[in-house]
Specification:
It is built from nine helices and eleven strands. The protein has a six-stranded mixed beta sheet with strand order 5-6-8-9-10-7. Helix 4 packs across helix 9.
């Protein structure tokens, strides 16, 4: 199997046209003509996942986040990211990123599936295909906020920073909005949607407090990594079905920047 066949399968599921205009998706390093029998999926391209891909004998590292989201003028090995690129190419491991195009296809849907949301639909649907888009909103059987937060913590990868909860933990919630990754720009939209609780990451102090003190939906905030990790098993399963014989593994390395001191 060639790398280009894997790329074609990924882009059939997550067309690059679904990516936001500011995004950088696609092949980052390597050649479409390299042979590929084993691929590793990870949230972040970083020293840990690059080492895991090379040390594990993988032919491709497929990450959710791009390595160079804002561009660069060098991939020299004297730079941190350039050293990773150099190591990958020397080992014959290609690097590919599927970011907001994967978000429209499956990142929020993966979270919705984990939680068992019924009638889940995009929070921000694509105009040409309302079944795709950013975020999801749906319903669950009524549950107290604290119990739902515990459920989220149990379902997602365990991280040193854990999860944060904003709101009365005894409040009963039923309509749930999710937007894995950085989602505080959608707080107003979440309120307009009628959600009881919003699950997202990277919540800043002032937007979160203004939202809660203004009577907005309750908040559950896992880390960025943890909230987006469920995309990986979903994408891995789809690729295994599309490309029989391809070995697809999912990294469980936690790539959050944070550790806990208490």
């Amino acid at each position: 199997m060639l790398t280009r066949e894997i790329i074609a399968a990924v882009e059939e599921l997550c067309p690059p046209a679904l990516a936001e205009s500011w995004d950088a998706v696609g092949l980052v390093a390597g050649s479409p003509d390299w042979e590929a029998r084993r691929i590793l999926l990870a949230v972040d391209p970083c020293e840990k996942t690059v080492s895991e891909a090379i040390g594990g004998g993988y032919d491709m590292l497929l990450t959710h986040h791009p390595l160079y989201l804002r561009g660069t003028s060098t991939v020299g090995a004297h730079t941190t990211k350039g050293a990773w690129i150099t190591d990958l190419i020397r080992a014959g491991v290609s690097l590919y990123a599927a970011h907001t195009n994967a978000d429209s296809w499956g990142t929020a849907q993966a979270m919705a599936d984990l939680l068992g949301l019924e009638n889940a639909r995009p929070l921000i649907p694509k105009e040409d295909d309302p079944t795709l888009g950013l975020g999801r909103i749906g319903t669950i059987a009524p549950v107290m906020l604290g119990e739902l937060a515990d459920r989220v913590a149990d379902l997602l990868p365990r991280t040193p920073a854990g999860i944060l909860v904003g709101g009365d933990e005894e409040r009963v919630v039923e309509t749930v909005a999710v937007s894995p990754g950085s989602g505080d720009s959608f707080l107003g939209l979440v309120n307009d949607s009628g959600a009881d609780v919003y699950i997202t990451a990277d919540l800043r102090h002032h937007p979160a407090t203004d939202h809660l003190w203004g009577g907005g939906a309750a908040l559950i905030s896992p880390t960025h990594f943890a909230s987006e990790w469920p995309l990986l098993p979903k994408l891995a399963g789809a690729l295994r079905e599309m490309l029989p014989g391809l070995e697809v593994d999912v990294s469980t390395v936690v790539t959050d920047a944070w550790v806990s001191r208490r």
